[in-house]
Amino acid sequence: MAFDSFQDFLAMGGHAPYVWAAWAVTAGLLGGIVLHARAERRRLLRHLQRRERRERRLADQQTTNSHPTAGHRHDA
Amino acid sequence: MWSFIHKLGSPRWFYAISARLMPWFWVAAALLIAVGSVWGLAFAPADYQQGNSFRIIYVHVPAAFLAQSVFVGMAVAGLVFMVWKIKVADMAAAMMAPLGAAMTFIALFSGAVWGVPTWGTWWMWDARLTSMLILLFLYLGVIALRGAFASRDSGSRAASVLAMVGVINIPIIKYSVDWWYTLHQPASFSVTSRPTMPLEMWAPLLIMVLGFYCFFIAVTLMRTRSEILRRESNKRWVRDLAVEGR
């Protein structure tokens, strides 16, 4: 351990603003990149799933040809 | 060899194989960055000249390594796309550009912040600093150029060409500290010579660099997979996959 106490660690020998600013920006960007990548994937999967279900339902309706005007909309 | 390249170039095959590889890179990245951060921030000894401000090195150097490596990766992917028309390479290149820009920004920002206590200034038109700033503009240029065309293929080709031409900046960044008399110190790491730092200082740095590389690979695999779903959304296999919700 290079520091005597937690206070010491936070103070970084008087260089706290520089050290923590650099580390905070790095951590923030890396974290943001991960969150963005995850949200992107989820959004995309949800969109594709919804579209595919809708199209399959439409295809089913057309083949059975049952009340095309009274179709329930679940995807609103 | 050729069949391997074309197999690798098949989005469906890439999607399957990357699903198995990606978790390992995420785990490795998380572990390496966690260990490297704790070691570098709390356990590595303070520098005898710079005191604790030198701890910025543990984010600055890995980000600077990545900033350059990602650009080379993007240029190679661009070349593969142009020569063999492999779409996955172009998708990966498209996903690498913002990540590389972020890494370049981290390197520039942490360097500027580090410069204040060390050099007494946050910016100098020094060869290393200026060439890194150009790298950031090249990344932004690649991103903008890709989006500037009505047809995706034109954008892809233009971005590939700019990445391949822009890669000339990488050796300039690398040798800037040798070619010009600069404020920036020479390389901390070299493949051919022994480290000039004590082990307790460079071991966490090496761990952080490896962690950043794993992070880059994991993010690029993940985002390329998303890009495959986006661009191949009308293919049968993507539609089947969408219903399963996987």
What does this molecule look like?
The complex is a heterodimer of chains A (76) and B (246). With 76 residues, chain A is mainly α. Chain A has helices at 6-11, 16-64. Chain A has two helices and no strands. The mean pLDDT of chain A is 85. With 246 residues, chain B is mostly helical. Chain B is built from nine helices and no strands. Chain B has helices at 2-8, 11-43, 57-84, 87-119, 127-147, 152-166, 169-179, 199-231, 236-244. Classes of the chains: A mainly alpha (76), B mainly alpha (246). The A-B interface holds A 1-3, 9, 12-15, 18-19, 21-23, 25-26, 29-30, 33-34, 37-38, 40-41, 44-45, 48-49, 51-53, 56 and B 33, 37, 41-46, 51-53, 55-56, 59-60, 63, 99, 102, 105-106, 109-110, 113-114, 116-117, 215, 219, 222-223, 225-226, 229-230, 233, 238-239, 241-243, 245-246.
The end-to-end distance of chain A, rounded to whole angstroms, is: 58 Å
State the helix count of chain B.
Answer: 9
Radius of gyration of chain B: 20 Å
- Determine the strand fraction of chain B and express it as a percent band: under 5%
Percent in helix of chain B: over 70%
Task: Give a short account of the largest sheet of chain A.
Answer: none
Figure out the total of helices of chain A.
2
Topology of chain A as a string of helices (H) and strands (E): HH
The overall pLDDT average of chain A reads 85
Oligomer: heterodimer
Tell the overall outline of chain B.
Answer: globular
Structural class of chain B: mainly alpha
Q: How many beta strands in the DSSP annotation of chain B?
A: 0
Q: So what's the overall shape of chain A?
A: rod-shaped
Query: Which structural class best describes the helix and strand composition of chain A?
Result: mainly alpha
Strand portion of chain A = under 5%
Q: Biggest interface and which pair forms it?
A: A-B, 31 and 42 residues
Total strand count of chain A, please?
0
How would you state the average pLDDT of chain B, rounded?
91
